[in-house]
């Protein structure tokens, strides 16, 4: 009878564990099973006190969720962010020091698809010892960005703050869209994300193209898909009315570099001084800060229509 009673107790305990999502081998706390934004099944600790984040975009959102004091490690590209402790350990995105990461005993590690080269996850050793690793690939749509924020809120038990961020995004985007929808004679725009001689831009199915449409602009590359290399001939033939650039790696002013290119002086955007620099972080990080870039581009493109936009 004692043996039967013990088996009943064990079965009851296992049922309880399954209903809670299991118990972590890392910190013996209750886990909640869910899918991360890459579709992987993960076991998230119910209480998260120590976070490692391997993406500036994700780090910015975590800070806005009020979690900066819980971040114990970052990638090297996040070092410039304010509201973070100045002495945080920094790691390489592609080849992180997994032994050091493990010694920090994080409750969760947030990564992006950028870290996984050829399908190899460099954070697998952490997963193997029971540390939760959540993947959030950079979203290609505004709706996807909102889902990323929602996911971070749910994982870190900051749903109310996440909902507030999303609500503010929707409100600010609606202000721009209400004006953009009234524009019928749309200006043509070329958005440069890599400078000559290796020009790079994007077509449709990218959140930046979605932003241009909301403003009331026509992407000259909208007949192509995703992120694409571009030839000078393509830009010259398109003759855009506006050129945006978020290139931030040149030794000189990227706007002046575009204006000085041989043959580009006949492009309408260059002739009419309609070449603008747009903040790189706000246009390359797929998070809530795209709204700031959206309003900046709107005011540059149609200053008379968006003059009252705050």
Structure description:
- The structure is a single chain.
- With 310 residues, this protein is α/β, with parallel strands linked by helices.
- Helix content is 38%, strand content 16%.
- The chain has helices at 2-20, 56-64, 98-103, 124-128, 142-155, 159-180, 207-215, 232-238, 254-259, 268-271, 280-284, 290-301; strands at residues 31-35, 41-45, 51-53, 71-75, 90-91, 108-111, 132-135, 187-192, 200-202, 217-219, 227-229, 242-245, 275-277.
- It has a five-stranded parallel sheet with strand order 5-4-3-6-7. The protein has a four-stranded parallel sheet with strand order 10-8-12-13. It has a two-stranded antiparallel ribbon with strand order 1-2.
- Strand 6, helix 4 (124-128) and strand 7 (132-135) form a beta-alpha-beta unit.
- Helix 6 runs parallel beside helix 12 (290-301).
- The longest helix is centred in the middle third of the chain and has 22 residues, at 159-180.
- The chain is globular.
- The N and C termini lie far apart (75 Å).
- Mean pLDDT is 90; it is low at 1-27.
């Amino acid at each position: 009878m004692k043996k039967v009673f013990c088996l009943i107790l064990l079965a009851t305990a296992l049922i309880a564990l399954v209903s809670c999502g299991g118990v972590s081998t890392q910190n013996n706390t209750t886990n909640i099973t869910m899918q991360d934004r890459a579709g992987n099944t993960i076991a998230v600790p119910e209480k998260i006190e120590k976070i490692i984040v391997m993406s500036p975009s994700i780090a910015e959102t975590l800070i806005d969720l009020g979690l900066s004091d819980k971040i114990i490690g970052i990638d090297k590209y996040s070092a410039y962010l304010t509201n973070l402790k100045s002495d945080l350990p920094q790691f390489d995105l592609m080849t992180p020091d997994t032994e050091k990461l493990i010694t920090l005993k994080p409750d969760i590690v947030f990564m992006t698809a950028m870290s996984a080269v050829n399908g190899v996850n460099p954070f697998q050793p952490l997963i193997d010892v029971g540390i939760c690793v959540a993947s959030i690939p950079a979203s290609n749509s505004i709706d996807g960005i909102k889902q990323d924020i929602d996911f971070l809120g749910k994982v870190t038990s900051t749903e109310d703050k996440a909902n507030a961020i999303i609500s503010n995004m929707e409100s600010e985007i609606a202000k721009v869209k209400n004006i953009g929808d009234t524009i019928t004679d749309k200006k043509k725009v070329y958005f440069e994300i890599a400078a000559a001689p290796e020009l790079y831009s994007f077509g449709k199915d990218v959140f930046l193209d979605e932003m241009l449409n909301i403003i009331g602009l026509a992407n000259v590359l909208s007949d192509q898909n995703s992120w694409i290399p571009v030839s000078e001939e393509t830009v010259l033939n398109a003759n855009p009315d506006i050129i945006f650039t978020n290139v931030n790696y040149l030794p000189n002013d990227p706007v002046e570099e575009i204006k000085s290119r041989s043959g580009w002086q006949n492009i309408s955007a260059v002739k009419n001084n309609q070449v603008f620099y747009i903040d790189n972080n706000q246009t390359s990080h797929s998070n809530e800060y795209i709204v700031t870039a959206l309003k900046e581009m709107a005011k540059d493109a149609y200053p008379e229509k968006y003059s009252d936009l705050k």
